[in-house]
Amino acid sequence: MTEPTDVYADQFQLNLGPLGCTLNFQVSGANPVAPGTMPPIERVATIRLSLQHLKAMAFIFHKQIVAYESQTQLNIGLPIDVLRAMQIRQEDWEAFWRP
């Protein structure tokens, strides 16, 4: 049996279509870039799945993270700059994770 693939990603891209979706996992380049230029990004994995599978995964991810935070008494937050970059309003973020 072949070894499973193990990758690290610090970025992702989600593409939805009427019959399914594609998740592209990416990693940022190792070297600094000049201000105002896009850093090089390498795609490290592509996962294709049905919309039903994606929605089931999202539900289970949410449930597991909420349980983990409850058990460990930790709040896994994101810096406001990251939320802005992902175009997520802080109040939407907080409402999503509220028990």
| Number of distinct beta strands | 3
Name the helicity range.
Answer: 25-40%
**How many separate domains?**
2
Q: Taking strands numbered 1, 2, ... along the chain, how are they ordered across the largest sheet?
A: 1-2-3
| Approximate shape | globular
* Termini gap: 42 Å
Helix and strand sequence: EEEHHH
Approximately how much beta-strand content do the residues carry?
25-35%
Q: Helix/strand-derived class? A: alpha+beta
Could you tell me the radius of gyration in angstroms? 16 Å
Low-confidence spans:
none
Mean pLDDT: 93
Count of DSSP helices?
3
Main sheet attributes: strand count, strand direction, barrel closure: 3 strands, antiparallel
Could you characterize the architecture of this molecule?
With 99 residues, the chain is α+β, with helices and mostly antiparallel strands. It folds into two domains: 1-49, no CATH class; 51-99, no CATH class. The chain contains three helices and three strands. The chain has helices at residues 51-72, 80-85, 90-97, and strands spanning 11-17, 20-28, 41-49. A three-stranded antiparallel beta sheet has the order 1-2-3. A hairpin with a 2-residue loop joins strand 1 (11-17) and strand 2. It is globular and about 40 Å long. The model has no long low-confidence stretch (mean pLDDT 93).
